[in-house]
Amino acid sequence: MSKASREFHVPDALANLYDFANTLDLRHFTHYGVQHQQGEELADPAALGDWLRQRGLIDRAAVPTQRTFEAALQLRGAIRDYLKSDVAERRRKAGVIAPLNKAMEPFALRVAAIGKDGFGLIPLQADAQAGLSAIVAELYNAAAAGTLNRLKMCAADECQRVFFDRSKPGTRRWCQSTLCGNREKTRTYRERHKHESGSET
Fold first, then answer.
1. Which residues contact 77 (CB under 8 A, 6 or more apart)?
2. What is the pLDDT of residues 156-192, one digit of tens each?
3. Any idea what the CATH number is for the domain that residue 171 is in?
4. N or C end: fewer C-beta atoms under 10 angstroms in the chain?
5. Whole-number Cα distances in Å, 145 to 20, 139, 142
6. Which domain holds residue 132?
7. What is residue 94's three-state secondary structure?
């Protein structure tokens, strides 16, 4: 679990999936006069290995290959596209489901008895791909438990940060209403006011 997942109270069962989706930071807004710098945590296979090891997802000796690295980026992109889709439409959008299915193919899982928790999915491999398989397992488990619908992408184009919707009705659109929500509402108000002013002339 990362500092961000703890700060935003992301459930442990979703923490690695949340962190993985947010290894790509596309935020490009200005906050208190400071321009947010975009970032990429998975710049190469070595960076991917470090990220997985920090979360205990792979053995210290495991080293991701270039092929695994490329598969990881494809998986991340497909997950982000899925989470960007409206919750009600996710399972019906072939253009989102098909790429996600293809991206998950390299990461084999098996059913195993896991003590007091009953049965669960665990990685079939024992190499660097196992860590990514564990993230796919989180995706499945969250979908089965109904919590995946609360993992969303911020609707603000200049943000696109994945967040966990903790609101009771589960209808939040922005990662933080006080930041992205306010910017969107202010922009909408200004555009409407500009349009109304233009209509009066």
1. 99, 103
2. 999 999 999 999 999 999 888 777 866 666 665 566 6
3. 1.10.3300
4. C
5. 20, 10, 5
6. 3-200
7. helix
